[in-house]
Amino acid sequence: MSDTANPSDVPFTAVAKAGAIPAGQGRVFEVSGRLVAVFFDGEHYSAIDDLCPHMGASLGSGPMTDGCVTCPWHAWRFRLSDGAWCDNPQLRVDVFEVRVAGDMVEVRVPPAKPVELPTSRPR
Ligand code: FES
């Protein structure tokens, strides 16, 4: 997929039965080659990139309170609505669309952008 692809062209993927994620918790699913943390607050689902940008902990295993998840390793907190780090909203994790279709929770997850490695150093 190119960078200009329309995200709405990415299909939704079913990840869990509605009700399978307990209220106040998250679960991690592999979708489109990415790890996605899906949370349920008792009324709504939300989905973010599972990997903490600090040192790579799984955000899906962190506690969820007041619309935020706390990283289980060093307690950075991320808002589930927009993925922003609560201490510095300029840093954020990806947020994905999530919906309930029938009795399934579905997420729309574009493939990760390829990592661009530096080319050879100038001489
Ligand atoms: S790995 Fe998440 S805060 Fe350190």
Outline the fold blueprint.
Elements: E1 12-17, E2 25-31, E3 34-40, E4 45-49, E5 64-65, E6 68-70, E7 77-79, E8 84-85, E9 88-92, E10 95-101, E11 104-108
Antiparallel strand pairs: 1-11, 2-3, 3-4, 4-10, 5-6, 6-7, 8-9, 10-11
The protein binds FE2/S2 (inorganic) cluster (FES).
FE2/S2 (inorganic) cluster (FES) binds near residues 55, 57, 71, 73 and 74.
Give a verbal description of the structure.
The protein is an all-beta fold. It has a domain at 26-108: Rieske [2Fe-2S] iron-sulphur domain (Rieske Iron-sulfur Protein), CATH 2.102.10.10. It is 0% helix and 42% strand. It contains no helices and 11 strands. The strands form 3 sheets. The protein has a 6-stranded antiparallel beta sheet with strand order 1-11-10-4-3-2, with no helix packed on it. Strands 5-6-7 form a 3-stranded antiparallel beta sheet, with no helix packed on it. The N and C termini lie far apart (34 Å). The structure holds FE2/S2 (inorganic) cluster. The site of FE2/S2 (inorganic) cluster has 8 residues, from loops.
List keywords for this structure.
Rieske Iron-sulfur Protein; mainly beta; three-stranded antiparallel β-sheet; six-stranded antiparallel β-sheet; 123 residues
Q: What gap, in angstroms, lies between the N and C termini?
A: 34 Å
Please name the CATH architecture of one domain: 3-layer Sandwich
- CATH class term of one domain: Mainly Beta
Specify the number of helices. Answer: 0
CATH superfamily of one domain: Rieske [2Fe-2S] iron-sulphur domain
Model regions low in confidence, pLDDT < 50 over at least 5 residues: none
For the sheet with most strands, the description reads: 6 strands, antiparallel
Could you please say which CATH topology of one domain applies here? Rieske Iron-sulfur Protein
Strand order of the largest sheet: 1-11-10-4-3-2
- Radius of gyration, whole Å: 15 Å
Percentage beta strand? 35-45%
Q: What is the H-and-E element order?
A: EEEEEEEEEEE
What is the general shape?
A: globular
Structural class: mainly beta
